[in-house]
Amino acid sequence: MQRTEFITVDTHTGGEPTRIVLNGIEADTLTGETVREKRDRFAATADDVRKLLMQEPRGHADMFGAVPVPTDRADLGVFFMDTDGYLNMCGHGLIGVVTALIEQGELHETPELTVETPAGLVDVTAEIADGVVRRVAFKNVDSYVCGTITVEQDGVPVEARIVYSGNYFAVVDADSLGVTLDREDATQCIDPALELRRAVNDAAPEDPVTGARVTVSAVELTGGGDSDRSCVVFADGSVDRSPCGTGTCARLTLHHADGDLAIGERVEVTGPVGSTFEGYISETSVANGVTVTSPVVSGTAHITGEHTFYRTDDDTLGSFTLA
Hints:
With 323 residues, the protein is α+β, with helices and mostly antiparallel strands. It folds into two domains: 3-138 and 302-312, Diaminopimelate Epimerase, Chain A, domain 1, CATH 3.10.310.10; 144-298, Roll (Diaminopimelate Epimerase, Chain A, domain 1), CATH 3.10.310.10. The chain contains five helices and 18 strands. The protein has helices spanning 35-45, 47-54, 91-103, 190-202, 245-257, and strands at residues 3-13, 16-23, 64-69, 76-82, 86-87, 112-117, 120-129, 132-139, 144-153, 156-164, 168-173, 218-222, 230-234, 238-239, 267-270, 276-287, 290-299, 301-312. Strands 1, 2, 3, 4, 5, 6, 7, 8, 15, 16, 17 and 18 form a twelve-stranded mixed β-sheet that branches. A hairpin with a 3-residue loop joins strand 10 and strand 11. The radius of gyration is 19 Å and the shape is globular. It starts with a strand and ends in an 11-residue tail after the last strand. The relative contact order is 0.18. The mean pLDDT is 96.
């Protein structure tokens, strides 16, 4: 019997898991000049590893993961994955990775570092006391509002605002989808959010900065009025337990575009399980006539366990998900 081992450390950031793969991935599946190229190589040659560690029976329907990789462009390189595929940027995952690697001694204990993600370079600040990471803040890649799309859902027009913040989000008021953001109702957000995402992507919106066709990967349902509650649905129906790092960046960018948030003004966003992220806009610029923001978001992560997972040639079940 042949057996392959994968060593991981798991964290949660505001309740949302990140499984960080420390060992077991073959080096030739991570080749490339940039982290994006390394991620794409991994996706093309070792996607079975993603499925093995994210999906059942070793993972679950809402599992999330990260793969640290070497880079000459920053202090750390990392890409992100879930049960359905890959994301270019992930705030909660980044907070989890930095926390775990510093506390495990895999990353030099430093208060400031730069991380290369598939979306670009991200500046990170870590608050460390006695070897424990108390809080992590990241200055995200440039974020901006792409526009507004109205789609029909169950015969009712629904307005979705498209924002780029490392990933493309469709931000929509929960009331317009007939759902609430109460903790016990979080799973009721899944089907309406996925239907909305399909409708928005069918409309093929265009990125006003790059001119590329937008593909929305996540839907952020927000509380009406002055509420800064959120519920982010991504992948094939995963619900982010945290307030979502890049989702919070999208929220900040919209607040600023609407004139509701000044540069440096801080906002606290609450996720489905009651955990919070704090964020603010550090600065703005203009690209192709569009206001571009630099959002900063902070949160706290905790290590939940260390694992050695096995893949053996006599285990023919492999990995799977149940709808």
